[in-house]
Amino acid sequence: MLSVSSRTAVVGLLGYPVVHSFSPYMHNAAFRALGMDWVYLAFNVEPRLLPAAVSGIRALGFRGVNVTIPHKQAILPFLDEIDPLAKLIGAVNTVVVKEGKLVGYNTDASGFWRSLKEEGVDPRGKRALILGAGGAARAVAYALVKHGCNRLYIANRTYDRARELAETLKKAGETSVEPLSLEEAFLASILPEADLIINTTSVGMETVGGELPITADKLEARHIIYDLVYNPPYTKLLKMASSKGCRAISGRSMLLYQGAEAFTLWTGREAPLEVMKQVVEELLPS
Ligand SMILES: NC(=O)c1ccc[n+]([C@@H]2O[C@H](COP(=O)([O-])OP(=O)(O)OC[C@H]3O[C@@H](n4cnc5c(N)ncnc54)[C@H](OP(=O)(O)O)[C@@H]3O)[C@@H](O)[C@H]2O)c1
Questions:
Q1: Which of 103, 138, 144, 153 satisfies CB 3.0 to 4.6 Å to 91 for a cystine?
Q2: What is the residue range of 41's domain?
Q3: 229 lines ligand 1 (CB under 6 A)
């Protein structure tokens, strides 16, 4: 039983929507396991109310927050300090309140990298196609460039966002990066070029909807498909990938690892990874 008192430390999630999120279950289980008087709550914050919500973090004495769709880039101007890595990536998914100051971090990049390593996927020398150019895409792209991906295509519904991200990545490493529109990514010329295809768009989330312009006939068994969307655990894209014999990886373990790092940033304690993993696996069976 979670007990909340007048001393309870509060952390939470700012997003729009947030109902899909499993972070509250994962973090509250971790607090219970360590006997900590902390609670994690999810807040549905409309984009126009983000500045007010950030003021609220400060005014109400929260210890920190996670930031998700669609606020990871929009929150930057409202923070007091931004960690150098988050600045380079251009997106914040974790805010820590330190002596009244709001400090932004990015744990998505290391969470993604850790999950990729766990799956035994080495991006060195590989060509990757990232679908999306939002906050999560920025972290994934940074991790791939940093770890030696040979060539990166970034395809987004809003082409200008893909172009802007490709420009940013020039500062991160040597990888050649090409921006594309989402439709262009599925033209005959690009998919045969790619080894790893990563969906970082919100398409596939139960609460968001939308369709990716991809059909199973465009996939080859050698493709590795990674979908950051973890709810539902087996997205349409992953089902399509499995039907073609591709390796299909869900964003479940990235959720775990980005969360564990955020937990440590807020609390200064090592995250109880096994507890958090058990919660995630129970709620999102593979
Ligand atoms: N597994 C994990 O640990 C983890 C971590 C981070 C994020 N995620 C997931 O990654 C997804 C993106 O999160 P985010 O924070 O990057 O959000 P975001 O910054 O709002 O970016 C959303 C991205 O999705 C695209 N998009 C949205 N609706 C679309 C549609 N109908 N058709 C095509 N593209 C569409 C957007 O394109 P435009 O630029 O054209 O709008 C943009 O590229 C979410 O599902 C989130 O839950 C998972």
A1: 138
A2: 9-106+253-283
A3: yes
Kindly provide the b/e burial profile for residues 124-137, where b requires at least 16 CB atoms within 10 angstroms of the residue's own CB: eebbbbbbbbbbbb
Residues 263 and 243 both lie in one domain: no
204 lines ligand 1 (CB under 6 A): no
Decide whether any atom of ligand 1 lies within 6 Å of the 116 Cβ: no
Render pLDDT for 210-241 as a digit per residue (tens, 0 to 9).
888 888 888 999 999 999 999 888 899 999 99
Phi, psi of 120 (to 5 degrees): 75, 25
Cα-to-chain-centroid distance, residue 223 = 21
187 inside domain: yes
Confirm whether 72 is a catalytic residue. Answer: yes
- Same structural domain, 221 and 148: yes
> Token pair of 143, please?
């991790």
Q: How far does residue 279's CA lie from ligand 1's centre (Å)?
A: 24
Among the listed residues 155, 187, 135, the one whose alpha carbon sits nearest the alpha carbon of residue 14: 135
Position in ligand 1 atom list of the atom nearest CA 136? 16
